[in-house]
Amino acid sequence: MSSSYVEDPAPGHGSLRPRAYFRSDARSLDLGGDWRFLLSPNIPSAPEGIEYPEFDDSGWTDLPVPAHWQLHGHGKPAYTNVNYPFPVDPPRVPSDNPTGDYRRRFTLDGDWLTQPAVLRFDGIDSCARIWLNGNELGVTKGSRLPSEFEVGPLLRAGENLLVVRVHQWSAASYLEDQDMWWLSGIFRAVTLLARPAGGIPDYWIHADYDHRTGRGTLSVDTDPAVRLSIPELDLHDHPATQPISFAAVDPWSAEEPRLYQGELATDTERVQVRIGFRTVSIEDGQVKVNGRRVFFRGVNRHEHHPDHGRAVPLDTARADVELMKQHNINAVRTSHYPPDPAFLALCDEYGLWVIDECDLETHGFGKFDWDRNPGDDPQWSDAYLDRMRRMVERDKNHPSIILWSLGNEGHTGANFARMAQWTRDRDPGRPIHYEGDLDCAYVDVYSRMYAHTQEVDRIGRGEVDNPRHRELPFLLCEYAHAMGNGPGGLLEYRELFERHPRCQGGFIWEWIDHGIRRHTPDGREYFAYGGDFGETIHDGNFVIDGLLFPDRTPSPGLTELAKIYEPVRITATTDGLRIENHHDHTTLSHLTFHWTLETEGTQVAQGELPVPTLHSGQSIDLPLPELPATQGETWLTIHATLATDTPWAKAGHLIAWGQLPITPATPPVRTGAVRILHAPTELRLGLGGFDPHTGTLTSLGGHRVTGPRVDLWRATTDNDRGEHHPDATAWREAGLHRVQHRVAQIHPGDTELLVRTRVAPPGLAFGLLADYLWTADTDSLRLRLDLAPDGEWPCTLPRLGLRLAIPGAFDRVRWFGGGPGEAYADSRQAARIGLHTATVDELQTPYVFPQENGNRIDVRWAELSTVDGQVLRIEGLPTFDLTARRWTTEALEAARHTTDLTPTDQIHLNLDLAQHGLGTNSCGPGVLPQYRLHPRKAALELVFRI
Ligand code: IPT
């Protein structure tokens, strides 16, 4: 059996012309379920004759379809970002080419034989040869694209046999070098569809909206026999191909995804359709829908499930859409291939702007300066066009799709220009996106990835050379790399998107961590990343860079993003508050505004806040509501919540909020100084016991403690270790992970203990002078820490503060300050001042690759308590940042998976003045200057109470 098709750069063959993805009332048979399966290590060793019914597959195993074989015990997943996992020798692929043979028997009744039928494969990775009842149907390539084969005459009443031979590698693998797991097999649905004679072969609904008149215009490209009904618009059995217009329709937008239920029908077939009227245009250098600028509050979505890989169940796709909507996301780029069609139907229904991206990436050629890159090589031209056609034809009926994308990271070339040309001719109604067309020669929008804020600002101001870059709408198809703890610096991007009308927002990289669920031998769950399956070439945890953890728990990055993307802004003015409507289309009538007044986090009053109608882009200044007089630190919080249930969240769901300070804090009163007591082995000052030789605190209210001691280090984040001049490298070179503490002087006075120290790295001349001044009142112990740089410092600091370990029983925390989640200097918009509680365990953010996490900011006071009610209270004068964990920073830094972290019998606290920002240097800009932590003269004042 010849397998020359495997290394042929041409597209597959034997399939039908691509057409729209739809379901009709014609019969269909889902061929999902258990198939017989055999994996052979290469093509020559795969068995012969599998296509014939008499072939004996009793020695094979069962494998579910849809699924990836590597996630069912056959072969192993492998992760690479840019590199091909095989030698770059296009179109050749390894002779060790794992080949999966699939066989499926199914039974049909005689009615199936009376009409034509097609077999549809929604996705096979990467190349497959297909037979039905011993007859070859053809070959398919293009893993994330459908193929349909005519099968009517081959069907039999009774038992039928479908056989598919899937190769892990093919020439097409060169076109599918996306940053993701290499996973093979029949991973999307397989369906047998009856195609009734005189039925609906294909259709394309063009539903335009004229925002000046409110008119909706409809025309359908389809067979002339097809009739269209839209009962809501009083349209019944209208000849579908005859354009018709309606004086007034409700438009579709991501904010108000109005769909009209309709039906296309012939005498033999009916299709339920959902029509959204909307018109995409480019005017004034902006992408507009229905005449209004779109602000892309976007994310890049790969299809990923921690157990199923890219075989994403429908419920999971729905969960994604609901989570996006709940977090104020309004746009998705389907990076970097067309998703399962079900996802697009959900985008229509729930309302998301979509950039539908073609399954095309050849990133691994970048290493060789794009030498032999398929994008400019005629032998690949048909494969490029074939992929684009199959996407556009499949997805053309979705109102949510407003841009077509030619692919990702494939450089440029004639094959891309050809795809663009074909698409423009076929669908003038949607602009074309491709970031790789740097000069914007054949695209309609200027798109970039990871551009720094200064550059975005220059683009917005038109201070760029290429006239296309000045004229076209601008978007960031990827920005703010959400790897590990981060991204930091989102606010600065939003400000630019709001300042420059042509800068239309962007898409965070990326939606979800692609971790694969695994268990330790003793049954503890963790998520695997590159290298965990023994890959010889891999890119480690670079695949763990999402806003969701692999199990779809939102990470702090998503909470921050929801705040950044909130479509309503509530801020303080000098004597009141301002409400701004940042929606693209809607008023705020779907929201209820409510205020609460809290003193030290406890509610003292609340009420409704009437907000007059505000159209999109409008704002209003309102006076403060009538508030009672308060004593103690008091904040007014305004919440904008959904007034009624929506398909994606219940009434009451929080969309936006703002906080205004009302009454400042009153500093604590001192109850009177306590004198030092000198015992032979201890200095005692109020609640504190000190080592007389080192001046360090050894007990606090009778509890053994370690520290407090100056701490400069944090378990480095992926962003600290990032790609350009990583901060972590500078910190390590400066020895900040191994500083020594020299006690210079211990001065016990009558009522105070002064301990002078110098904190400095071995072998280097610079350091920090750190003076600890201890005093005590009858009910408290006070520490004032004065810090001053000594000598020339070469770098920033990860953190500046104290570490202190206390007994492990103090494992529940209540604090008044920023929360409830973690926050950092450049990722702190989602933290609000209030009273929060959590266990120490709950304070941890389980980053798949462990790193610094869990910092709570602006803490006025925190109480750590035991189960039996003992309390250690720490107050900041005025505030501090708090971290509490059951392991040390060193253990956190050494861990590679969450299951490497084992609790000690202490709680390790960091009480910080500040931490360095997060930035997004794992791929993109580092920490902005205003969030960098430089060594400086500083003081931290804390009060301890038991
Ligand atoms: C960019 C890729 O488009 C994306 O797939 C992902 O790999 C991302 O980087 C990093 O996670 S390309 C890069 C050269 C910026």
UniProtKB/TrEMBL annotation:
GO biological process, one term: lactose catabolic process
Entry EC no(s): 3.2.1.23
Enzyme class: hydrolase
SMART domains named among the record's database cross-references: Bgal_small_N
Organism: Crossiella cryophila
PROSITE patterns assigned to the protein according to its UniProt record, in alphabetical order: GLYCOSYL_HYDROL_F2_1, GLYCOSYL_HYDROL_F2_2
Protein name (database record): Beta-galactosidase
Beta galactosidase small chain/ domain boundaries: 684-945
Catalytic activity: Hydrolysis of terminal non-reducing beta-D-galactose residues in beta-D-galactosides
PANTHER family per the UniProt record, alphabetical: BETA-GALACTOSIDASE (PTHR46323)
Similarity comment text for this entry: Belongs to the glycosyl hydrolase 2 family.
